[in-house]
Write a structure and sequence with these properties.
This protein is α+β, with helices and mostly antiparallel strands. Helices cover about 30% and strands about 45% of the residues. The protein has five helices and nine strands, in the order ααββαββββαββαβ.
């Protein structure tokens, strides 16, 4: 009986290894899609400015929708709280910014809008790279924070499905392919 199992396991050893490697590669490909916060920090001059870098990978569903003319709106949220041991933490800032990514089939260019500013790109990777770089965003005056107090910064970015056209909102609610969201990225800060 043990001889049978030894021969069976040696014959199928390569099949099991191949199955394991396929499962492992599938896990990595799933992790590659989405948004991830790479880093976030403050630069200090007369005020505090936020510098953050996101790694953004659109899945094939979002890429196809974008090429068919559906604009994708991303929401970046930032919170700054002062830690208090004797009471609830004090929320100092609760800010958010919208960025819209769209594709123009006529010019074959991607367009990135942030407020009244816009920029055109020849390829998606450049547009996503710029969208993932939040540089020198003024968040608070230096005088508004207490020296030596403990603060916690929190940051996240997500695809805002509430700004999609109505038929796509229904698809987005029913499918995980439209769910692009980072978890809150948190860091401690002492001025």
């Amino acid at each position: 009986m043990t001889g049978f199992f030894m021969r069976f396991s040696k014959k199928n050893e390569y099949k099991l290894l191949l199955l394991f490697l396929t499962a492992l590669l599938t896990c990595f490909s799933v992790q590659a899609e989405g948004i991830r916060v790479k880093s976030a920090e403050f630069s200090v001059n007369d005020d505090y400015r936020l510098n953050a870098y996101f790694e953004i990978h659109l899945n094939p569903t979002l890429d196809e929708a974008l090429k068919k003319g559906v604009p994708l709106n991303f929401l970046t949220e930032f919170e700054l709280t002062r830690v208090r041991w004797y009471w609830l933490d004090e929320k100092i800032i609760d800010a958010s910014w919208h960025t819209k990514l769209s594709y123009n089939a006529l010019t074959q260019q991607y367009r990135l809008n942030s407020g009244t500013l816009y920029q055109n790109f020849d390829n998606l990777s450049d547009a996503v790279s710029v969208m993932g770089s939040l540089l020198h965003r003024q968040v608070i005056n230096k005088s508004a924070l207490k020296k030596g107090a403990d603060y916690v910064g929190r940051l996240r970015m997500s695809l805002d499905i509430s700004l999609l056209p109505k038929p796509f909102q229904i698809d987005a609610l029913a499918s995980n392919e439209w769910n692009l969201d980072t978890n809150w990225f948190q860091w401690d800060f002492v001025p």
